[in-house]
C-alpha cells in the first residue's frame, strides 16, 4: 500500500493548546488521486490538561466526498481522557475532498496531531 504524504496545516491557535498536523492518505490508489484532501476548517480543542502539551496522537478517519470526517479514532497509545476530548472536536473538522479524475472521492487518512502551546 502506497502512502501519499500531504501537509494539512501548521499550528492553529486555541484557548490552551493548538494542533499541528500532517496527514497520510491510506489507499491502494493514492497515486491515482488528482487532488489530496486539505484541512479547510479546524475546531480547536479546549480543556486539555497542560501535560498534553507536546503530545502527538495518531488519528485514523475516513473523509467522505464532502470532506467530512467519519469513523474518527485514536490509534496511538495514550491518555484515554485526551482521546475522549479530541475525537468529538476532530469530527467537526472539514476538509476539501480528495479527487480522482476531477471527481470527489472518499479516502482514509492517518493524521498525526501534535498539541502545541498557544503562541
Characterize the structure shown.
- Mean pLDDT is about 75; it is low at about 1-20.
- This protein starts with a strand and ends with a strand.
- The longest helix is centred in the C-terminal third of the chain and has 11 residues, at about 80-90.
- It has a single domain (about 20-45, about 50-115), classed as TolA/TonB C-terminal domain (2-Layer Sandwich), CATH 3.30.2420.
- It has 1 helix and 9 strands; from the N terminus they run βββββαββββ.
- The chain has about 120 residues and is mainly beta.
- The protein has a 5-stranded antiparallel beta sheet, covered by helices on one side. Strands 3-6 form a two-stranded antiparallel sheet. The chain has a two-stranded antiparallel ribbon with strand order 7-8.
Widest sheet, order of strands: 1-2-9-4-5
Please trace the helix and strand order, writing H or E for each element. Answer: EEEEEHEEEE
- Unreliable segments of 5+ consecutive residues: 1-22
Q: Rough shape?
A: elongated
- Just give the CATH class: Alpha Beta
Secondary structure tally, helices: 1
* Class from helix and strand fractions: mainly beta
CATH architecture: 2-Layer Sandwich
Q: End-to-end distance, in Å?
A: 38 Å
Helix content: under 10%
Radius of gyration: 14 Å
CATH T-level topology: TolA/TonB C-terminal domain
Main pleated sheet: 5 strands, antiparallel
Integer tally of domains: 1
Amino acid at each position: 500500500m502506497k502512502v501519499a504524504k500531504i501537509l494539512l496545516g501548521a499550528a492553529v491557535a486555541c484557548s490552551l493548546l493548538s494542533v499541528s498536523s500532517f496527514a497520510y492518505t491510506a489507499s491502494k490508489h493514492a497515486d491515482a488521486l488528482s487532488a489530496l484532501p486539505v484541512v479547510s476548517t479546524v475546531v480547536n480543542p479546549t480543556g486539555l490538561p497542560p501535560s498534553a502539551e507536546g503530545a502527538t496522537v495518531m488519528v485514523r478517519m475516513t473523509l467522505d466526498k464532502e470532506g467530512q470526517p467519519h469513523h474518527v479514532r485514536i490509534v496511538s497509545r495514550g491518555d484515554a481522557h485526551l482521546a475522549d476530548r479530541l475525537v468529538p472536536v476532530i469530527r467537526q473538522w472539514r476538509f476539501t475532498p480528495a479527487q480522482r479524475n476531477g471527481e470527489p472521492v472518499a479516502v482514509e487518512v492517518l493524521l498525526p496531531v501534535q498539541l502545541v502551546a498557544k503562541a
